[in-house]
Amino acid sequence: MAYSQEDLAIMDSIIKRYPRSRSAIMPLLHFVQSRVGFVNGDGIELIAKLLTLEAAEVSAVATFYTQYKRKPVGEYHVGVCTNTLCAVMGGDAIFAGLKEHLGVENDGVTADGKVSLEHIECNAACDYAPVVMANWEFYDNQTVESAKDLVDSMRSGNPKPPTRGPNTLVTWKEASAVLAGINDGKAHEGVQAGEPSLLGLKISKEGK
Amino acid sequence: MTKLAPVLSAHWDEKDSFTIEAYTRHGGYKASQKALAMDPDAVIQLVKDSGLRGRGGAGFPTGMKWGFIPQGDNKDHYLVVNADESEPGTCKDMPLLMANPHVLVEGCIIACHAIRAKHAFIYIRGEVTHVVRRLNQAIEDAYKAGHLGNGVDLVLHVGAGAYICGEETALLDSLEGFRGQPRLRPPFPAIAGLYARPTVVNNVESISAVPAIINNGPEWYQSMGTEKSKGTTLYSLSGHVNNPGQFEAPLGITLREILELSGGIRTGHTLKFWTPGGSSTPIFTQDHLDTPLDYEGVSAAGSMLGTKALQIFDETTCVVRAVLRWTEFYKHESCGKCTPCREGTWWLVQILRDLEAGKGTEADLAKLLDLCDNILGRSFCALGDGATSPITSSIKYFRDEYISHITHGGCPFDPVASTLFVGAGA
Amino acid sequence: MTTTEIVDMITVIIDGFEVSVPKGTLVIRAAEQLGIQIPRFCDHPLLDPVGACRQCLVDIEINGRAFPKPQASCTIPVEPGMIVKTQLTSVVADKAQKGVMELLLINHPLDCPVCDKGGECPLQNQAMSTGRSQTRFEGVKRTFEKPINISSQVLLDRERCVLCARCTRFSAQIASDPFITLNERGALQQVGIYEKAPFKSYFSGNAVQICPVGALTGASYRFRARPFDLVSTPSACEHCASGCDMRTDVRRGKTLRRLAGDDASVNEEWNCDKGRWAFKYVTAVDRLTHPLVRNDAGDLVEASWPEALAAAAKGLKAASAAVLVGGRATHEDAYGYSKFARIALSTNDIDFRSRISSDEERDFLAARVVGSSTTYRDIDRADQVLLVGFEPEEESPIVFLRLNKQFRKRALKVTTISSKLSIGVEKLNGEFVKVAPGQEAASVSAQALTAQSIILVGERASESAGVLTAVAALSDSTGAKIAWIPRRAGERGALEAGAIGNLLPGGRPVADSAARVDIATLWGASSLPSTIGRSSDEIYAAVNSGAIGALLVGGVDPLDGANGESALAALEKAFVVCLEIAPSEVTSRADVVLPVAAVTEKSGSFLNWEGRARKFDAAVHDSLNRSDLRILSMIAEEMGTSLNLSTVTSAAKEIASIGAWDGARVQMQQYSSTQSPALNGDRFILTSWRRLLDLGTLQKGEENLAGTARQTVAVISPSRALSMGVSDGDLLKISTVQGSVTLAALVEDIHDDAIWAPRNSRGSQLLVNLGAAHGAVVTVVKI
User: Fold this and answer.
1) 4Fe-4S Mo/W bis-MGD-type domain location, by residue (chain C) (predicted)?
2) How far is B377 from chain C, CA to nearest CA, in Å?
3) A chain contacts of residue C183, beta-carbon cutoff 8 Å
4) What integer best gives the mean pLDDT of chain A?
């Protein structure tokens, strides 16, 4: 796809964040995902051109990191934590349930392009286990049923909001723009912390 | 007196805790004002005196790390904050940044002053969109308020899914736009780090601890904790407990104490095994409930304090399954650079899968241990070492359970029993 | 070495033995000094240490303090008080190494019987020394699609790869061609290219050579031979003047592969792909095998050697004769031609420059180059390097690697005076002094150099008047050293051998009577001709005007010169004796054709651009072909005289006996540059150079190699492109009165007046198609 002048200006501003331009590879790859939905050849070649690198150097980086996708994912990309703690506490069951419910395997996308599914590693929310992520927003304390409801809400076009995140779930491309460092104005939305994050503080205030 | 001591987390329960207004309301950005008026060396000395040690896992004294940066070398210096929090079980930095990103921003300003850096980077893992928003907004607001941009620039760099980037030299390579693979040391980052310039790499929690230390003085910080492990820290309790969550306490608290405060092991169940500091730290059992959770105490008991990620597993959990899953994680996250980790984790997973499926033999256990011996201390970085920890420690404590998989011809556990929603009709 | 360097030595104990090595030496190499071989894969002495494979783990203690775990000996420099225990004396190190070896093998396929590397494979060898006899791995091996082409000449088998990253590090660190990289992660990590950009590096063969397993193989050698069937001979590369040390591997009289040799002072351990993969011309089906003589009917027919030699002698005696020897002759052969011209033909009409040349150049070579010795080592020490009429990567690739090494190591400043910025100079981050073709001289004069600087002058410097004059003056005013780097391997040797009209062997000026006496005495001749000889162009002109009636021609392509039509006419007209390996534009016009040996079939030496002798023996021993020198001796005998050079050895001895010339050197005349021509709308000034991989005769039949050649394009500047409405890929027709070429446009950094095209590439043979190569005004239209 062709990038607009505005896109190119954003990419230029991303490069300017860094003392050395090559550092901008990762945010630029996130930015490509925000425009294309995944990292395609055009994106790799454009980044190579912008940073005066060989395309091979850019693809070497792109293929190292699992968040950069080689093919389109859903509008809502769902990740189920199946690292040990979440898996044991229900993540495995949730993942199996979603696979069956959506009719897709790991890394699969539903035919309507709405939802893709991936099992993910620990997402730093273990006190909210089992954890499901959608477009890398937190859905805490999930069950098989709540996860199915969640993906159903996505497919119906009215996704449930994250537990700790903005008031509405943004799309995969919109989330990728945030990861590229673009402020979408939603930082103030959502809770400041979930209950487990506050538990110690609460107990302390109770004087225990 | 309470065993808990919320400092970092003191104001997380205010709805707007993440805003610059809330942060300023509680005295935010006073510490940086105070520090900027001090001689940089005095700031370093103050942090040294506080006894603050790295909260990312290794526990290296923070002030000493800052002191390694060569001064008067006419080179650019950099501060890089490791916010790549990815160690399984570890979940302290993300809630911290969600609830109070400004404390990290202020810590960066102080640290940059101390090490004479004009440029700081926060390398945050990429799988946390909302935390990225909060931190990005905090940086914007700090610029607007003039805290940043007047001598210190701060850039948020978002990762893209690679556990290895939590290793500081891999993080630096990643930040420079390369594949996140660890570098040879020496040279150490303090001499040749980011862009081959003197660089301090600190964990989020370490830097975030600094403003309070500046405000309250090193003696105050020294007054908490144990002999060699000073101050407070975030303990993250997760797993088969009635009330998981974050518990900020002076170093040295025990798991028994945290469990007592929080409501204990899942009702009707008993503690089987736990990690003191994430999956790379050898597991503990009931026998370690009273081990002081400080750097020395945990180490003396045969593990590592690590990230203080207390993952609790009760008797319904199959240790072989747990270890296999962790091993699969290490295989997935091995960067591929060195042979022992890359090939070793590939093989370990295959043996463990067979063992879990009841297709192994006792000889496989010996092979597993020998393989671990060929990986531990032979790999390029600590990832390979970490991969062996759950295996060797679990065989040490639960050898019989491995054997029972062999004799039983499969896993004797019901995985449903260990889920959180067992009995909830799920 | 001209200066003594003081090196700090450090003494360490390895396996109980003391060894002293220079400070900074890595443990693994200190051990080598004791003959202790620590197994390794990723380690390579010319690449930055990486410590990735972990095969070389050893136990180390320093002043009584032991490292808690074994250390990679390829990453740790020696330190005073260090005690190292390798696998020979440490159980821990031994187990660590065995453990790593086992892990390297679990995913390695057992396809050694069909693997090219089998028999010379570091993995195979070290598996024998360090591996287990029985595998403990009962799992599933990692599999990949079997070999994939990463270029037309390199194949990658990822299953065999041990991920030592030597190839990717070579490409990035040595060649600055990061077209191959590590991709993916963990156990799926693999070497690869970007899907649309093959491994088109001029140096890709080195990656194949340093691969410690059979993961990278060359398309030309794949499945052709077993290492133990090959007979290896040290050799020297005949392709350019870099002077690479080489190894030629022959099976039953046929060269199957060539490898870079190891010469730290010249090519280190590298060479270019042309040197490695262009050798089939030797075994081409059209090699000349028998002498040919033109009969009365005007046909070239096979003849016996005595018949042919008699005909040659007769023809050369019958008229005034001149000698044209190409730039690819060995030093000894060139010496033979030089002596033959003076002794048998009594003339100084001899020129090795079968290319565009000038009188200014002839002066310059005699005044500044012959007998001089600027070296690679000087590049290592230079404060800056100025390139004049010279593209190192295209025209002397090992010089490029050396410049690149110093650039990467210490940011060596490189400046080029040229019309077009080249890929190679860009890689060196060189300063580009942009000039219109033909106007280089003024920019040369404007350079600020020092006595520590070096001016690398290419043969193309002769194509613009005044440039060599300016180079000489710049050297005089600054003390900067000059190095002349011709493209062809034989030119420096031919210069030293006096195969040029103004010099006798050993740099003796023809015009100097003492010099003539010197050489006449050596040769046992009463006197030597004293008239300065004609240049190639003048010789052809003299034939066409009737002043010369016979030509002795060896290894010349008449179309390489400035005036191909005149050359061909002369060859038609004169009585021509031609020494050649294969049919050519000369043999078809010759009266006597005498087949000669190719480089691999004879012994001899080249003098590289440094003037350093690169000796070689015959790699193919059973060739019936004779060297030029031998045949020249036979013709001389037939003419009733003698060269007294029965063998290459006797020639080498005689050359060595000449010694340096301590008399006056030829003085450089002053030449000035020509006016820049007036240009209008569709007029450009042509400039060009030969690419490393092109239609060169010695690359004939190497299709795999040709597949990695750079794209043939015509380069114009952005502003000219804008005014002509041209963008990349549009077709441009470049015309002269002689003809035209039509090429795809590429808009790049080039002087606005200039248009660049490759001089001798597919679709762009400028000398043939346009009759011009540099400095001529051409008409360019978009079609």
Assistant:
1) 230-286
2) 6
3) 59-60, 63-64
4) 97
Residue corresponding to tokens 């993942």: A95
B350 within 8 A of C139, measured Cβ to Cβ: yes
Give the C-alpha separation, C291 to C306, whole Å. Answer: 9
Number of independent structural domains in chain A = 2
| Residue ranges covered by each domain of chain B | 20-222, 232-314, 319-407
Q: Looking at residue C3, what is its pLDDT?
A: 53
Provide the chain C residues 191-250 that lie in CB contact (below 8 A) with chain A: 192-197
Place of tokens 């002293």: C20
Q: List the one residue out of B263, B277, B136, B116 whose CA is nearest residue B199.
A: B116
Based on the domain organization, do A113 and A41 belong to the same domain?
Answer: no
Interval B374-404: pLDDT, tens: 999 999 999 999 999 999 999 999 999 999 9
Contact at 8 Å (CB) between B255 and B310? yes
Mutant choice from C103, C182, C188 vs B, greatest count of B C-beta within 10 A = C103
Count of domains in chain C?
5
CA of A59 vs chain C CAs: smallest distance (Å): 7
The encoded tokens of residue C112 equal 């050694």
Chains that touch A (3 or more CB pairs under 8 A): B, C
Distance CA C770, CA C783 (A): 18
- Please answer yes or no on whether A59 and C194 come within 8 Å at the CB atom: yes
With b for 16 or more beta-carbon neighbours within 10 A and e for fewer, the C345-359 pattern comes to bebbbbbbbbbbbbb
Which of residues A12, A42, A62 is at a domain's end?
A62
* Helix or strand (DSSP H, E) at B209: helix B204-216
Chain A CB contacts of C185 under 8 Å are 63-64, 66
- The phi, psi pair for B294, rounded to 5°, reads -125, 175
Annotate chain A with DSSP letters as a single string.
-PPPHHHHHHHHHHHHTSSSGGGGHHHHHHHHHHHHSS--HHHHHHHHHHHT--HHHHHHHHTT-TTS-SS---SEEEEEE-SHHHIIIIIHHHHHHHHHHHT--TT-B-TTSSEEEEEE---S-GGG-S-EEETTEEE-S--HHHHHHHHHHHHTT-PPPPSBS-SSPPPHHHHHHHHTT---S-TTSS-S--HHHHHHHHHHHTT-
- Provide CATH code, domain B319-407: 1.20.1440.230
pTM equals 0.96
Does the CB of A56 have a partner CB in chain C at under 8 Å?
yes
Q: Residue C7: its pLDDT value, please? A: 82
Could you give the percent of chain B with pLDDT greater than 90? 97
Q: What would be the CATH architecture of the domain defined by B20-222? A: 3-Layer(aba) Sandwich (3.40)
**C423 shares contact with chain A (CB less than 8 Å):** no
Domain check: are C348 and C493 in the same one?
yes
Binned average pLDDT, 10 residues per bin, chain C of 783 residues: 71 98 97 98 97 98 96 97 98 98 97 94 95 92 95 98 98 98 98 96 98 97 93 96 97 94 97 97 90 96 97 97 96 98 98 96 97 96 98 98 98 98 98 97 97 98 97 98 98 98 98 96 96 97 98 96 94 98 96 96 97 95 89 97 94 95 92 85 95 95 95 97 96 97 98 97 96 96 95
Instruction: Provide the shortest C-alpha distance from residue B420 to chain A (in Å).
Output: 5
The answer to whether the Cβ–Cβ distance between A198 and B416 falls below 8 Å is: no
Do C523 and C616 share a domain, yes or no? yes
Q: What residues make up the domain containing A23? A: 3-62
At the topology level of CATH, where does B232-314 sit? Ubiquitin-like (UB roll) (3.10.20)
> What is the interface pTM, i.e. ipTM, of the complex?
0.98
Q: Determine contact: A46 vs chain B, CB below 8 A.
A: no
| Test the C interface: residue of A25, A40, A49, A54 with most C CBs within 10 Å | A54
Q: Give all strands of the β-sheet with B199-203 in edge-to-edge order.
A: B153-158, B119-124, B78-83, B199-203
